Give the backbone structure.
Amino acid sequence: MAINVDTVYRTVLLVLNKENRGYITPDEFNKTATQVQLDIFEQYFDDLNQQLRVPQQGNDYANRQRAIEQKLAPFKGYGQCEYTGVTTPNATVNDKTFAIPVVDGRGNTVINSGLEPVDTPADPNATPAVEAETQVAFYKLGTVFYKNPGASAPTSEVQLVTRDEYNSLNKSELTAPSVYSPIFMYEDYRLTIAPDTINDNVYASFIRKPRNVIWNFTTDSNNNNAYSWSAATSTNFELLQSEQTEVIVRILLYSGIVVKDYQVVQLAAQEVQQNEINQKS
């Protein structure tokens, strides 16, 4: 279950106002919360890389590698790659490219996070509630598969190679890729796959980017902000509830800078550092 944005915002305000340290506006909170969620999300990949080099406990609850995989689970997607039929510039062989999945297995539209914000409807005439819920922003490519319809073992993993390796393997008859051992290089959100007889049935897993956090509000006659929830205008954190304490502490770290209370910054920084030590020791 995700972390409730209203709970986090009210907790942050409670801590800041308890000693009259200051006030963080809803807009400041939304920007800070979105950055904190992204910080924690990106840290998962470094933590997972570290845990892959460490022997794991057999117990499900003590296995840190499995715990990180569970934290990443809400952001995992899978979809078919669309064949573009575009020849790669300066190619040494007649290779063709595939685009990253445009629709995931849940029917969500996959957009390029570098080109369009995830919380902006692609169609200005569409209902925001529908459009925002059905868009996910591509973040990181996972495993690529080719489903060969004519093979007895129809699914082959497509191996990632560099451009130099791609060109070298295609030049030699001994190392030339086949539909049973295909290869691909990944550049500019496109997959160039060999052999060039493959022009369909390519699928990829991927990690999507977390949606921006939004604490939506209405203002009453006394100019007080009141929380207002709707799927069209508010967005909870997408991190697991086990991360709620970490989220609050990190937001307080940023909030201390906003309100210029460096005691808050120092205390929050110490807490973040101690949490990271506990998780990795």
About this structure: Confidence is low (pLDDT under 50) at residues 115-132. The helical segments are 5-18, 26-51, 64-72, 128-133, 163-171, 244-258, 262-280.
